[in-house]
Amino acid sequence: MKNVIIIGAGGFARELYSYLKDANYEIIGYIDIQENNFFDLKYLGNEDNFDKKLIQKASFALGVGQINLRKKILVKLSKKSCNFITFIHPQSFVSKEAKIGQGV
Q: Which ranges carry the PglD N-terminal domain (predicted)?
């Protein structure tokens, strides 16, 4: 089972949480601007202030829907050597012509 940390705690992150659970990912916590009630997940800090040891223990899933903020966080955490998963739900249909990149 792959360990994952979700970035964000809004509606898109909550949807992503359900998809990852369905696909048997081990979600070890979430990173967001501030702590809030995000299901049963442990709050791990914000993107500037979290335990850097987690980078070696888990991959990251970007649960932020707003595109400009999403890009900003992706760039910032990539510079810290964070690895982002590319997630395709097992029940998804993906066209043969589709190109899916990192962090999708």
A: 3-76
pLDDT(13) > 90 = yes
Q: Which of 102, 103, 88 is nearest to 23 (CA)?
A: 88
CA distance from start to end of the chain:
19
Instruction: Tell me what the pLDDT averaged over the chain comes to.
Output: 90
Q: Is residue 101 assigned to a domain?
A: no
Residue 102 lies in a domain: no
Name the maximum alpha-carbon separation found in the chain. 40
Classified as helix, coil or strand, 84 is strand
Instruction: State pLDDT tens for residues 29-50.
Output: 999 999 988 888 999 999 889 9
Secondary structure class of 53 (helix, strand, coil):
coil
